[in-house]
User: Which sequence fits this backbone?
């Protein structure tokens, strides 16, 4: 587990002004023109730190970032699905 992860930030903000942080290969990655490569990093925390140097409001993408780093998430936290079918 010494291989770095490629992190990208969506340069287009959502309705609340948040930019989403993604790992390479995420299905929710924005188009190439809206994806800013911020570096090869080892933890989500590093990714957020770097992203916040460029963007004021940054949130980790729930699909690629939260899921892979949720080992210590409390049991009472339920995932929220924003895209019902
Ligand atoms: Zn993602």
Assistant:
């Amino acid at each position: 587990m010494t291989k770095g992860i490629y992190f990208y930030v969506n340069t287009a903000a959502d309705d609340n002004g948040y930019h989403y942080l993604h790992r390479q290969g995420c299905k929710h990655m924005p188009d190439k023109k809206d994806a800013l490569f911020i570096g090869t990093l080892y933890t989500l925390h590093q990714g957020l730190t770097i992203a916040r140097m460029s963007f004021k409001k940054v949130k980790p993408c729930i699909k690629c970032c939260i899921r892979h780093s949720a080992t210590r998430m409390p049991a009472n936290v339920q995932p929220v699905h924003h895209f019902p079918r």
Q: What stands out?
A: The longest strand covers residues 35-41. Residues 5-69 form one domain. The pocket of zinc ion is lined by residues 22, 26, 28, 61, 63-64 (CB under 6 Å).
